[in-house]
Amino acid sequence: MITKTRGDYLSNRAWFKDVLHGQNVILCHGSALEYLQLFMGYLNEYEIDVYALEKGIYKNINYRTVNAFSNIDTVRIGNLLCTSVNQTINDMLDDFNNTDEQALLEALNEYYHMNNQSFRGLVIQTRNIKLFENIKNWAIEYNDGGIGHNDRAGNTYVSNIR
């Protein structure tokens, strides 16, 4: 069984609130970035990423099962729990090989510009610092062409950093 999809709603937030109402889940990864308004999402989006204590019934919800929610840093917006900005960014860096790079880079770019062209306040876990340092310039330049573009100095950025 699938849930309603993004196309049935005016906003991602409305979609998430309706579909996840009453479920014991925490929005995470790309869905958290959308809910935190750091990533615009995709047209006709179909899937939602959540942390859950057990797998649910919906095929279009990516249930990332965890043993407990107590170690997950969250924020409550309306009736939904969502991973905090720091938690979301670190989770996506931890799982970079399976991460939506566009969502991550767009979110980091948005964060950078919302914070006076700085990443101050963003707490990157020690295990993720090297990867963050490798991608932060791509994120800063995201609006100038994103992955695979030449910067003003003539350097070519590519997305294959794994």
Question: Can you give me a brief rundown of this structure?
Answer:
32% of the residues lie in helices and 13% in strands. With 162 residues, the chain is α/β, with parallel strands linked by helices.
Give the helix/strand layout:
Blueprint: H1 12-20, E1 25-27, H2 29-35, E2 48-52, E3 61-65, E4 74-77, E5 80-83, H3 85-94, H4 101-114, H5 129-140
Give an account of the 3D structure.
With 162 residues, the protein is an alpha/beta fold. It is globular, with a radius of gyration of 16 Å. The protein has one domain. The protein is built from five helices and five strands, in the order αβαββββααα.
Sequence of strands across the biggest β-sheet: 3-2-1-5-4
Number of strands: 5
Poorly predicted runs: 146-162
Number of separate helices: 5
- Rounded mean pLDDT score: 87
- Please state the CA-atom Rg, rounded to the nearest Å: 16 Å
